[in-house]
Amino acid sequence: MTFSFTYPSAKDFNDLIVALSKATDSITINVTDEGINGRYVEPDTKSMMVILNVPKTFFSSYEIEKPLSLELNLASLRKVLSKAKSRTASVEVSETDSGMRITVKDNKLGTKSNIYVSSKKGEVNDGGEPKVSPTVKMSLDSRVLELVVGDSSIIGDEVLIKGEGEEVTFSTSERGKEYTATMRKDKPLKYIEVADSAESKFRAELLKEAVSITSNFSNVDVELGTNIPLKMRGEADAGGQVTVWIAPVI
C-alpha cells in the first residue's frame, strides 16, 4: 500500500469533491509528502483555473511511501459520496491495485461502508498558479457573493469589479439598464484591505461559474488587481481549500 490517509469530516470531504465537480468531470490529484493537491485548467479558452490543496496537517492520519497521481472521475465519485455528508463520519482513502478504496466510518452511529474507485495512476504533475500581485483583498459570505454576481449577470454580459478606498463595487450596464452593488466592511464584507485601488472587468457567466464552485463553503476570500486574474478561495471547515482563478476581459 503506497498511501493511506484519513480526513476527519465526510461532509467537508464531499464539499471539496462537489466544488471540483462543478468545474470538470475529471481531475488529476497528486498524493505527495506534503498532502493532496490537484489542478484543472479550462481547456478551450484557458480562462479559468481550479486548484485543490489539502495539506497533510488537516488529516487525522497520513501515510505515504511514494508520491503519485490519480486521475479521478469526479462525476462518479460525487455520486457514490452523495450520502456521505455527516460531520461525525470520517473518510479513509487507501490505494488498491486498480485505484483506491474509500471507507466512510461513523463512530457515533456505528456504521461503516467501503467504496472502490478505479483510477489511472501516474507520476506527480505539479502546476503553478498565476504570479500576480493583487492590491484589493476581501472576505464575505458565499451567499452574498452568489447573489451579487447573479443579479449582475441578469443585466449585462460583463461585470466591472472595482476596489477603492474602503469599498468594493460590482457594476454592469447594458441596453439602458444598470446595476451596481457597493460593499463595505460589515456591510456585508467581513474583511477588506485596499493597498491600492484596482479594477478589472470579467465575463458575467465566468464569474457565475467561479462563484458556483465556491458556493459550498460558508466564506469566500477574493483578491483583485487591475487587469490581472481574479482569485476566489473557499475553505472547508475541517481544512483544505479550493481556489478559482478567472481571467479578466482586457
TrEMBL record:
Pfam families: PCNA_N. This is DNA polymerase sliding clamp. It comes from Sulfuracidifex tepidarius. InterPro entries: DNA_clamp_sf, Pr_cel_nuc_antig, Pr_cel_nuc_antig_N. GO terms for molecular function: DNA binding; DNA polymerase processivity factor activity. Keywords: DNA replication, DNA-binding. Homotrimer. The subunits circularize to form a toroid; DNA passes through its center. Replication factor C (RFC) is required to load the toroid on the DNA. Belongs to the PCNA family. GO terms for biological process: leading strand elongation; regulation of DNA replication. It comes from the Archaea. The gene is pcn. Sliding clamp subunit that acts as a moving platform for DNA processing. Responsible for tethering the catalytic subunit of DNA polymerase and other proteins to DNA during high-speed replication. Residues 16-104 form the Proliferating cell nuclear antigen PCNA N-terminal domain. The keyword DNA-binding applies. The lineage of its organism: Archaea, Thermoproteota, Thermoprotei, Sulfolobales, Sulfolobaceae.
